[in-house]
């Protein structure tokens, strides 16, 4: 399963900055950071459930926005990139 | 064709802030802004070429990062959302 995880975590206060760091750190355990708030994740359905649950425990539901897109295998390898963006090689499943 | 456009535009100077505004404004003519730097776009292959060309003219290749993921029809409608994120209704093609 390939997932694109994108997020906006409100950083108007130090609490928000802490949540942002935690979301990023969590996602780094599941996939590759391709932009500040965008991760490419290759994982199992069970991992998706764990990731979603863990993110839900971190964020502030009234301020933060998380989107998890399920995309077909091969989507990451076919991404169009401009500027400093690069296609990144994925191991089969990066979940630690 | 459904596209997920994600970007990081460097805003270390006013020039970068101008590029960021321009990229956002351009993408708003093609699709729906779902997060600060994430757009969902429903468009034709010809529109994709125009969008890519126009973005390329705005950004600084040495600082900015643009990713354009081609995703299957229905991907947007099946996105998992947490917090304030919402699934947004798409007209068939939003290109103005």
Q: What's a quick, concise take on this entry?
A:
Chains A, B: Belongs to the CRISPR-associated endoribonuclease Cas2 protein family. Two copies of one chain form a homodimer. Chain A has 96 residues and is an alpha+beta fold.
Helix/strand layout:
2 copies of one chain form a homodimer.
Chain A lengths: L1 E7 L5 H15 L2 E5 L2 E5 L2 H14 L6 E7 L8 E4 L13
Antiparallel strand pairs in A: 1-3, 1-4, 2-3
Helix pairs in contact in A: 1-2
Protein name (chains A, B): CRISPR-associated endoribonuclease Cas2
Enzyme class (chains A, B): hydrolase
EC number (chains A, B): 3.1.-.-
Structural features:
96 residues; alpha+beta; Alpha-Beta Plaits
Taking the alpha carbons of the first and last residues of chain A, their distance comes to: 16 Å
Q: Could you give the count of β-strands of chain A?
A: 5
Order of helices and strands of chain A: EHEEHEE
The pair of chains with the biggest contact is: A-B, 36 and 36 residues
- Strand order, largest beta sheet of chain A: 2-3-1-4
Q: What structural category characterises the helix and strand content of chain A?
A: alpha+beta
Helix content of chain A: 25-40%
CATH fold name of chain A, please? Alpha-Beta Plaits
Oligomer kind: homodimer
Annotated CATH architecture of chain A: 2-Layer Sandwich
Average pLDDT, all residues of chain A: 94
Number of helices of chain A: 2
C-alpha geometry of chain A: globular
Poorly predicted regions of chain A are none
| Tally of distinct domains of chain A | 1
CATH class of chain A reads: Alpha Beta
- What is the alpha-carbon Rg of chain A in Å? 13 Å
Q: Kindly estimate the percentage of residues of chain A that lie in beta strands according to DSSP.
A: 25-35%
Largest sheet composition of chain A: 4 strands, antiparallel
């Amino acid at each position: 399963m390939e997932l694109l995880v994108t997020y906006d975590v409100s950083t108007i206060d130090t609490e928000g900055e802490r949540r942002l760091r935690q979301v990023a750190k969590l996602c780094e355990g599941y996939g590759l950071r391709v932009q500040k708030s965008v991760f490419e994740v290759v994982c199992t359905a069970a991992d998706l459930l764990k990731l979603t649950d863990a993110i839900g425990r971190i964020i502030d539901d009234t301020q933060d926005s998380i989107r998890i897109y399920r995309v077909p295998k091969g989507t990451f390898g076919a991404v169009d990139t401009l500027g400093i963006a690069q296609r990144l090689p994925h191991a089969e499943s990066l979940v630690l």
